[in-house]
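User: My collaborator sent over this chain with a note saying "see what the structure looks like." That's all I know about it. Can you take a look?
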Amino acid sequence: MNIEELLQQFNFQENLELEFKTAALGMPAGMWDTVSAFANTHGGWLLLGVREDKGRITLDGVRNAEAMKQNIVNLMRNRQKISMEVCGPEDVSIQKTCGLDIITLKIRAVPNSEKPVYTGGNPYTGTFVRRNEGDYNCKKDEVDRMIRGAGPQSADSAVLKGFRMTTWTNKP
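Assistant: Without extra context I'll predict from the sequence alone. Here is the result:
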């Protein structure tokens, strides 16, 4: 999907599934938090080299886009940066628009069995979710809930050995 189609699809504004980050001076601050948030929510698109200010979109582009793209692909596999590779090399692209390079990342939503996706090597400080157009750090109980639901079979769906309905009664 090209940038113009993407912007039109999302009505030219950040939302639950679209985020802009300025990247004229290098890798944007908070980028990995957004990657975590998209992966833990519904997935989404991250556009580097685009900024929004008071509802107005400005393209400022990415300098040395090829090097930044390669850096993103490399860091996506660095577990101290992000706990899981949620977009592969085919999901990171450079698009030219208005004579500027814009990097697009398509971030997949992970199933509950693979959550949480977190940054910085620590799920309790680096797990984020997406709400409207913002990324929010998860509280401990939210992270615990994700961890309990992870794995091939969540703890809530496990069959309890030796449990019988006769052992469970409704006593006053």
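A starting point for your reply to your collaborator: The chain has five helices and eight strands.
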